[in-house]
């Protein structure tokens, strides 16, 4: 069911997609952080992915200040995609329901695109909050700008809540993979990063909250989904030779980790399958 709360007089230049599931306890902070931005030409689309808590009552209090899409629970990828399809802006920004934007975030990125007309995607720096305490990310999480494909193979270096991108980029590269229960952002950023630079505004403009039990990053066996993304890129034969070699090396590393976990849990057939998988790709021309 789609419920539009209010009509905008003209298509907004920036559409913000905010998926949520049973996070009424923090959702209001995320919504307020968007509505309090100093950029006027903006729409906020909240996608309620089948919440059973007080989410519906909370978002109703915003009346015509937001657009709401309600759907049965299908996961974060399906929720984001529903919002993107409904969006009318030429620039798309994402925000997770447990994160918040700092003042000036939207203006900074809109200005970046105005001064960099060839840029397709950019993100900002972020402040990490774990269980209410500020923490410093390790060097391996340090964000860089430009062609970051090789560094992005090890772990996700792009934060959905920090990203803004042109709608045309998603039209070309596709939306989030709804078959992935986790690492769907890792998958999309790899599909983009092999071809296009991901620009960085070197200013912390989001608060990234973590440590709560319902985070997808706490799911087990995340490397299984990352392996799938790497394999699909290799199968497309779209990578440069250097990118291909880096992808194969990371495939070996991630398969080794996953194989070790499978054997520890007695899943020997699955372990053998992933052991053969990386060997087949490394031996292929």
- Order of SSEs, N→C? EEHEHEHEEHEEHEHHEHHH
Radius of gyration using CA atoms only? 19 Å
Q: Name the average pLDDT.
A: 92
Sheet with most strands: 10 strands, mixed
Count every beta strand, where a strand is a DSSP E run of 2 or more residues.
Answer: 10
Quickly count the helices.
10
Residue share in helix: 40-55%
Supply the helix-strand structural class: alpha/beta
Low-confidence parts: 1-6
Report the end-to-end length measured between terminal Cα atoms.
Answer: 49 Å
Sum up the overall morphology in one term: globular
How large is the share of residues in beta strands? 15-25%
Question: What can you see in these coordinates?
Answer:
The protein is built from ten helices and ten strands. Helix 1 (24-35) links the parallel strand 2 and strand 3 (42-49). With 285 residues, it is α/β, with parallel strands linked by helices. Strands 1, 2, 3, 4, 5, 6, 7, 8, 9 and 10 form a ten-stranded mixed beta sheet that branches.
Kindly list the characteristics that best describe this protein:
285 residues; alpha/beta; ten-stranded mixed beta sheet
Give a summary of the structure in a few sentences:
The protein is of the alpha/beta class.
């Amino acid at each position: 069911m789609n419920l539009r709360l209010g009509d905008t007089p003209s298509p907004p230049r920036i559409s913000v997609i905010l998926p949520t599931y049973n996070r009424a306890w923090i959702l209001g902070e995320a919504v307020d952080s968007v509505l309090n931005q100093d950029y006027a030409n903006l729409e906020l689309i909240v996608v309620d992915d089948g919440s059973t808590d007080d989410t519906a009552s909370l978002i109703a209090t915003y009346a015509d200040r937001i657009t709401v899409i309600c759907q049965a629970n299908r996961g974060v990828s399906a929720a984001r995609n529903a919002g993107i399809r409904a969006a009318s802006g030429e620039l798309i920004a994402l925000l997770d329901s447990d994160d918040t934007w700092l003042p000036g975030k939207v203006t900074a990125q809109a200005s970046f695109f105005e001064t960099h007309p060839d840029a397709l995607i950019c993100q900002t720096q972020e402040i990490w909050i774990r269980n209410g305490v500020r923490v410093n990310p390790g060097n391996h999480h340090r964000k860089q700008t430009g062609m970051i494909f090789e560094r992005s193979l090890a772990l996700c270096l792009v934060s959905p809540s920090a990203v803004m991108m042109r709608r045309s980029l998603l039209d070309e590269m596709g939306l989030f993979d709804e078959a992935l229960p986790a690492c769907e952002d890792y998958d999309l950023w790899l599909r983009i990063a092999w071809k296009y630079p991901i620009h960085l505004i070197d200013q912390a403009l989001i608060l990234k909250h973590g440590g709560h039990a319902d985070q997808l990053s706490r799911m087990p066996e995340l490397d299984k989904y990352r392996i799938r993304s790497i394999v699909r890129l290799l199968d497309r034969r779209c990578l440069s030779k250097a990118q291909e070699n880096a992808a194969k090396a990371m495939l070996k590393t991630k398969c080794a980790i996953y194989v070790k976990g499978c054997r520890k849990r007695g899943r020997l057939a699955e372990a053998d399958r992933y052991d053969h998988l990386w060997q087949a790709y490394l031996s292929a021309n």
